Amino acid sequence: MAFNHLRAGEHDALGALSVTPVTHSVPMAMNHRPDRRSDDRQEPPATGPSGRPSPRTVLDRLASGESRSARLTHTEHLPPRAGRHALWPDRIRPEVIAALNSAGIDHPWAHQALAAEHALDGDCVVVATGTASGKSLAYLMPVLSTLLDGSEAPNGRGATALYLAPTKALAADQCRAVKELAAPLGHAVRPAVYDGDTPFEEREWVRQYANYALTNPDMLHRGILPSHPRWSSFLRALRYVVIDECHTYRGVFGSHVAQVLRRLRRLCARYGSDPVFLLASATAADPSTAAERLTGLPVKEVADDASPRGELVFALWEPPLTELHGEKGAPVRRTATAETADLLTDLTLQGQRSIAFVRSRRGAELISVIAQERLAEIDRSLVGRVAAYRGGYLPHERRALERALHSGELLGLAATTALELGVDISGLDAVVIAGYPGTRASLWQQAGRAGRSGQGALAVMVARDDPLDTFLVHHPEALFQQPVESTVLDPDNPYVLAPHLCAAASELPLKEEDFALFGPTVPELLPQLESAGLLRRRTKAWHWTRRERAADLTDIRGEGGPPVQVVEAGTGRLLGTVDASASHTAVHEGAVHLHQGRTYLVKELDLEESVALVQEANPSYSTTARDTTAISVLDTDVSVPWGDGRLCYGSVEVTNQVVSFLRRRLITGEVLGEQKLDLPPRTLRTRAVWWTVTEDQLDAARINPEILGGALHAAEHASIGMLPLFATCDRWDIGGVSVPLHPDTLLPTVFVYDGHPGGAGFAERAFHTARTWLTATRAAIASCECEAGCPSCVQSPKCGNGNDPLHKRGAVRLLTELLRGAPEE
């Protein structure tokens, strides 16, 4: 955890750092605006104030040479910013202030003091400021002061506080930092982690004696709330609930967490407490509204970032086209994975402490392996200073990597978003982001991992061969001139709410006075739960009727069942786990699986036992699963005319089946072959947006029956690729189907649907922004330099039909005609 403060006076020096304007600089819609001067350029200083190379110098070295410089499509410069101090709130205990002074924090920033005042007033508050702005201190000031007050109570346990983090790594990092900070307070503050990695012999101590418990929503859902009688003294004294990185609670996961928090509030009321919720978020649009939906309570907003910031040089980087050709002869760009591995290698050779963020677990492993191989060719002593970090590692492996990163033993790390969230990695010089991470909020969160000690930093986003990434590196204003997204979640989703009503009833019988807490759809769901034999009404309350634990009805991360264990066939050694929802695509028979730099081939996937047996191997290829999808309309909620066509939103049923996988050559991505698979289909009831076109519209767009399927298919692929720019989703959170004549609409139709039961709010957002979304989709296809369609515009990496048929020009004409009739938003 970083409080990210400089000693008094040091922040003034930040404002005096040399500012190096660059051409193409555009304003960024956050809490600051970058320098836009472009007519008085000067050479960047070779070194920064610390004597290390300046971010611009590091970037110039990365982009040196004719072939490299052409890959740099845009450079954004955010100049340094001085901080604004405030006085310590007068209700903060002097002992806490003294402890903070000892840690080098002489004064709070203005936003920290304001948030603490709201908390001390008993108001729930969300602090939504930039990365490294010291949000931790904003909530720790009132928490530590209140715990110190409680320690002086003559009887009883005193006050308690609960901290929730989306990842185990962040909770462990926070606990370590709080222990250091609160050391001068003696035993008045007793922090402890309580999660799945906590040894059983320590758990009783946490329940009985800790007054600051750090956990995650999963453990709250499965471990703490179902066992609330054992936590009664803690819950009775609960004064604050801290929800860190709350912008990550979106979609289905966010909706589940919202209901877990309502269950927590209900049990607190049962024990006589009414805790104040303190939330910390990355910069977000309308954070108070999202926080209110998450907690079900009114929330004050603090979003004016008063912290200082070192300069940030942010580069957009597009890998070059290769001489290879992919499906249907399309040109192929060098992969973002290979390009990122090269950049991480070069940064390591420059002595720059760096993280490369990558979307997939396999990608993180592959980048570290490639970087290690290239470092070995130059200097074998550097090989051990680069590693991978991802979810699915065993606890001791994660902790060892975190320690090595903190100590500086590691220079380079290829990581999934498991390290995006708040873990203090002070002193990093650079961040490389392999592909747009799905939202602008995540982009800035990842970029903010560097420069956390106040020094200048470099961030580089490497574009994947993907419509959205290609669009962004050539339209930087979509990143730097747009505000971050609103958080999308739907706590009233019946697929989410129903299992939490069962869990709540098992914790305490559910009564009518609880209905308002859980939302307006409760009266509709209870009869269905009764008829299913899950709940039974006795007098005025509903009771859980079964022997099994109600909390086990749902996985709050929406992963659809127990994780699949990855086991080495020859030894029986457990290597790690894979989410159940990803098992068909990640560990099917014949899949290449990477773990800790070693490569394995999956020999068998046992779905009944949730086990994948693997064997170490060294194939010269990677694997990509392919699937097929069918869709039917269950209910149309709303339908609006778009000229002769229509735009609709409603409920659908999707049937999906993984049918084969491709073998692709490492580095180049060249397809080597396809192999069939025999896996069972999966059925999903969810929400979708869809649009139809008529014969007259097809005639106007010059779309004949021979190219209709290809035009629809190309428009579907590109629209899926572009949606993450308008909704807080990942491309892999959504799916699509296009049909020249759909049996339910009786017209050519394109569907885009949420990939989660009951929906996640993404399709609804697409419906409400459809004109802007599809306009950008058309522009992305039309501006691509390829002739007939490629992965940068209309080809999809997960297409079950082998990207056939596709008609690029037809998709442009079709979208042009459709948008002609679109109403203003």
From TrEMBL:
- What InterPro entries would the database entry show? DEAD/DEAH_box_helicase_dom (IPR011545), Helicase_ATP-bd (IPR014001), Helicase_C-like (IPR001650), Helicase_put_actinobac (IPR022307), HRQ1_WHD (IPR055227), MZB (IPR018973), P-loop_NTPase (IPR027417)
- Does the entry feature the keyword Hydrolase, yes or no? yes
Disordered, as annotated region: 17-86
Reading the lineage from the top rank, the first entry is: Bacteria
Biased composition (Basic and acidic residues) is annotated at 32-43
User: Would you tell me the protein name for this molecule?
Assistant: DEAD/DEAH box helicase
User: Domain Helicase ATP-binding spans what residues?
Assistant: 116-302
Q: Which UniProt keywords apply?
A: ATP-binding, Helicase, Hydrolase, Nucleotide-binding
- One Pfam match, by short name? WHD_HRQ1
Q: Which organism is it from?
A: Streptomyces polyasparticus
